[in-house]
Design a protein that fits this description.
Blueprint (H helix, E strand, L loop, with lengths): L3 H12 L2 E3 L2 H8 L1 E7 L5 E12 L5 H12 L5 H12 L9 E7 L3 E6 L2 E6 L1 H6 L12 E7 L2 E12 L3 H10 L4 E5 L4 H11 L3 E3 L4 H14 L5 E6 L5 H6 L2 E5 L5 H6 L2 E3 L5 H17 L1
Parallel strand pairs: 2-9, 2-11, 9-10, 11-12, 12-13
Antiparallel strand pairs: 1-13, 3-8, 4-5, 5-6, 6-7, 7-8
Helix pairs in contact: 1-11, 2-11, 3-4, 6-11
Bound molecules: adenosine-5'-diphosphate and magnesium ion.
């Protein structure tokens, strides 16, 4: 039978907007020694603003934005939403009928055909994979490169704010004895390093594809096997596989994807990293009562 204390733990969690899908996850949460965070939408707000638009090879800013918005039209990624918004703000929304062959390149960007032109929008890796000569290789910040029919059209420099309570969340986790707080991100090294420094993270890994995040997870998992449990926290935009693989998978539920909410062991009803510390704290208190 399940000790009564567990119901108390699950009940207390749910009152704080923390949905724990089983008493076993309270046990795992109480034993967490490593917390791995996704970056975009988890430690950051996942709302991008445009800082700069730079064109190349004779493209105008207007045509660059139009091609980019068309390629991003069908994507739900926060970067896509921000780029489509710029085009919409001009009062000339992209015509859906002109877009074909849309494909998401997970952890890299998107690809689509717009008015017969093959358009790519994404990071350095997407450009390299497709042999596109691009510029601004070491920019600190997130860059959406745009290529049209294999030609580099330019890039859109975008920025995403850190969540206001992210720093405090990391500090709380360290204070309660979590040994390692790490960030796993598909974004570039420079941006990841800046975020890690600002937030006081123990370590970070950049340029990861969604499958690299799973691989990384399996590695730390086998190294850490005896010394504690590992939590992964994500918003679920392409990180449902890692959420599934973690000892305890935590999804930010308010803005997060349905797949993540379904896969996760713990769902946060408020998109706040501070809730992760709160969940672990409640779990530890519950264990003291149960044992
Ligand atoms: P994170 O790991 O930080 O949550 P993602 O895995 O969602 O980030 O994406 C990794 C990187 O891939 C982004 O930083 C961005 O450079 C690029 N990217 C992903 N999706 C898109 C998109 N729709 N448009 C442009 N770039 C994208
Ligand atoms: Mg993400």
């Amino acid at each position: 039978s399940i000790p009564l204390g567990y119901f108390g733990g699950i009940g207390r969690s749910s009152m704080q907007g923390i949905l724990v899908k089983g008493s076993n996850y309270l046990d795992v949460l109480a034993s967490v020694t490593t917390v791995a965070f996704d970056k975009t939408g988890t430690l950051t707000e996942g709302v991008f603003k445009v800082n700069d638009v730079v064109t190349n090879n004779g493209f105008t800013k207007d045509s660059l934005i139009e091609f980019a918005a068309a390629a991003e039209y069908h994507s739900t990624h926060p970067i896509a939403v921000s780029i489509v918004d710029i085009q919409n703000a001009k009062g000339e929304p992209v015509q859906e009928s002109k877009i074909s062959e849309h494909t998401v390149r997970s952890g890299m960007g998107v690809e689509a055909v717009y008015e017969g032109h093959r358009v790519l929008v994404g990071n350095n890796r997407l450009m390299e994979k497709n042999g596109v000569e691009y510029q601004n290789k070491n920019y600190e910040g997130t860059i959406a490169h745009v290529s049209v029919d294999g030609k580099y059209a330019g890039h859109i420099a975008i920025g995403d704010n850190l969540r206001s309570d992210a720093r405090q969340a990391i500090r709380s986790l360290k204070d309660m004895g979590v040994k390692e707080v790490v960030m796993l991100t598909g974004d570039n090294e420079q941006t990841a390093a800046a975020v890690a420094k600002t937030l006081g993270l123990d370590s970070f890994h950049a340029n990861l594809l969604p499958e690299d995040k799973v691989d990384y997870f399996e590695k730390i998992n086998s190294n850490n096997r005896d010394s504690g449990k590992i939590a992964f926290v994500g918003d679920g935009i392409n990180d449902a596989p890692v959420i599934a693989r973690a000892d305890v998978g935590i999804a930010m539920g308010a803005m997060g994807s349905d797949a993540a909410v379904e896969t996760a062991d713990v769902v946060l009803m408020v998109d706040s990293p501070l809730k992760v510390a709160e969940a672990i704290s409640i779990a530890k208190q519950t264990r003291r009562i149960v044992w």
